[in-house]
Amino acid sequence: SRLFVGRGGVGKPRLFSSSTELMCMSRYGKLNEHKEEVFGRYPLTKMVCTIGPVSEDKKTLQSLVTAGLRVMRINFSHATYEEADLRMKNLRHSKGFHGGTFNMRAVMLDTQGPEIRTGMFEGDEKSKGKKPKIELRKDETIILTTDDAHRYLGSVHKLWVSYKKLIPTVQLGSQILLDDGLISLEVIEIGDDQLTCKILNTGLLGERKGVNLPGCNVDLPALTEKDKEDIVYGIKNDIDFIAASFVRKGQDVKDIQQFVKEIHDQYWPPEHPVPGIISKVENQEALLNFNDIMNESYGIMVARGDLGVEIPYENVTLAQKEMIYRCNKIGKPVIVATQMLESMQQNPRPTRAEVSDVTNAVLDGADAVMLSGESANGSYPLASVNALGSIAMEADKNVAFLNEGKFFKKAVSQKESMGTIEALAYSAVRASQELNAACIIVMTSTGRTAKLLSKFRPSVPIMAYVDNAKIGRQLILHRGVHPLLFKKTGDDTNADEAVRRALEFQFCEIGDTVLILQSMFNAETSVYDVAMRIRKVGEDGSNIDHAM
Fold first, then answer.
1. Measured between alpha carbons, how far is 137 from 502 in angstroms, rounded to an integer?
2. Active site residue 338
3. How far apart, in whole angstroms, are the C-alpha atoms of residue 2 and residue 15?
4. At what angle do helices 381-401 and 33-41 cross, to 10 degrees?
5. Which among 103, 43, 40, 75 has a CA at the least distance from the CA of 371?
6. Taking a C-beta distance cutoff of 8 angstroms, is the pair 452, 331 a contact?
């Protein structure tokens, strides 16, 4: 008998006899004990974890950091400033793998965004503390109105909707989805300030639930007043990333960046790095404008929750793969989010489908995978982080050793020309594979070279030796990059010291080969040149192979 094994669209499918191990499984056997430890300590794929009521206390958050949390997401759809203060304080006091001063965990502020929601129900004060719900029944009709007089008078007959341009946005036959698509409506009559809709399925509806208008171009601002207040708070607290909700076009990202820069300049000196904008792709319009959004953003979040409501759910996986591919091609970090281990909000183990979902996100090329309710509100936050980390690590091994990692390199390097530093980064990744290097060390002040190395998907960790903590925290989002801080002295940073640090923090062992990328001042030309060195590591970090 023979077993057919596909390659996910990369290369040709192979046939293996039943007595032959799969290539990826046989590769695992080639990992020595040290490299197994390195994969666990310095994963290629990173974890973004939402911190909420069940995980914000110091002890639990420390356990999540120890388990591999690299970026803490705070969801400002729910969090108060007092809660955010506590979460940031506890994160910054948590010890990373390297100890307290080397806790390079980043903070991501996730905006609520310009959402469309229903209003409150009439007489909800009678609910006596319980969250009131109404039952909408199939084939009955309901009126949706934008008249503010009905904002607190919702019933099974009439609901208020926050979007003032609702009436001209829809057409007869348009679908309107309530509460993440749990209830579907069809527009059957359009009035001056209200719609009459047919209820397509029975369901319970709570107050202030989300409203989606799939296939409609919605005219909403890039930032609400609440978003602006939250961003001001975040910039004051030196957050590293802003996840922008419901981005629809490239101009939205430009508008957000302009606001962020204006506020940033009020609180920080010009040389201080601004927060990176992570654009959340959540609707059809954003997919149509994806290239513009991607080019203007620091990175992309594949936000599959709202996206799965706004577009046919059977297209979500294909959209995810396409977005990841495009981000990989130009070296933008991409996060895959929403319902990755959803069942672990109630259960201590993930479903097999969830395991496959995480694995395929890594194989597709995600820089990071994200937990939402699993780590914020679920019953098993630590178990969820441990599960996500172990699944991603096993997938990382496959990416790293299947075909020597070359299929990723091929996917992202197809372009007409490269700049000098990009070409050097490409060469370094290729050399690391040919020489079986333990790690790549990059000495950088801006983070640019480290990002380019990550773009070409090396199969070993990238130790980014940086002199700016915030640049280091932002680099942590990129696949395979792990920052260490050093104090800039004004002279060229000593490569020997960087290798000693790599030894100290177990990126490599004595006798390993490492690659070093470093900027060096050329006195003849008065410019900085970027050079690559290959070194066999000695006890003190020196080169023990003088032929190199």
1. 63
2. yes
3. 7
4. 130
5. 75
6. yes
Over residues 52-62, the pLDDT tens digits come to 999 999 999 99
489: annotated active-site residue = no
Neighbours of 100 (CB within 10 A): 10
Q: SS3 letters for 400-449? A: HHHHHHHHHHHHHCCCCCCCHHHHHHHHHHHHHHHCCCCEEEEEECCCHH
- On the question of pLDDT at 192 being above 70, the answer is yes
The type of residue at 276 is: G
Q: Which amino acid is at 52?
A: G
Q: Taking the alpha carbons of 486, 490, 495, 500 in that order, is the dihedral positive or negative? A: negative
Q: Which residues contact 218 (CB under 8 A, 6 or more apart)?
A: 116, 163, 165, 169, 248, 283, 285
Cβ(475)–Cβ(448) under 8 Å? no
Catalytic choice (118, 338, 449, 513):
338
Q: How many C-beta neighbours within 10 Å does residue 29 have? A: 7
Distance CA 373, CA 379 (A): 10
- Burial of 461-470, coded b for 16+ CB within 10 Å and e otherwise, reads bbbbbbebbb
Annotation says 349 is catalytic: no
For 79-136, write each residue's pLDDT tens digit: 999 999 999 999 999 987 654 455 789 999 999 999 899 999 987 655 445 678 999 9
Catalytic residue among 70, 280, 397, 470, which?
Answer: 280
429 near 450, Cβ under 8 Å? no
Mean pLDDT of the chain: 87
Distance in angstroms (rounded) separating the CA atoms of residues 455 and 441: 15
Beta bridge partners of 241: 108, 276
pLDDT top residue among 181 and 40: 181
Token pair of 456 as six digits: 């070409």
Confidence of residue 401 (pLDDT cuts 50, 70, 90): low
| pLDDT higher than 60, residue 415 | no
Among 446, 442, 470, 474, which residue's Cα sits nearest to residue 458?
442
What would the mean pLDDT of 236-248 be, rounded to a whole number?
97
3-class SS of residue 335: strand
Catalytic residue from among 73, 105, 409, 535? 73
DSSP string of 513-543?
EEEEEEEEEETTTTEEEEEEEEEEB-TTS-B
Q: What stretch of H or E contains 451?
A: helix 448-455
Q: Tell me: the pLDDT tens digits for 418-434?
A: 788 899 999 999 999 89
- Quote the percentage of the chain above a pLDDT of 70: 83
> Do residues 495 and 531 touch, judged by C-beta distance below 8 A?
no
Handedness of CA 391, 394, 395, 400 (dihedral sign): positive
- Examine the residue annotation and report whether 73 is marked as an active-site residue of this protein: yes
CA-based nearest residue to 245, from 115, 91, 370, 144: 115
Name the DSSP letter for residue 101: G
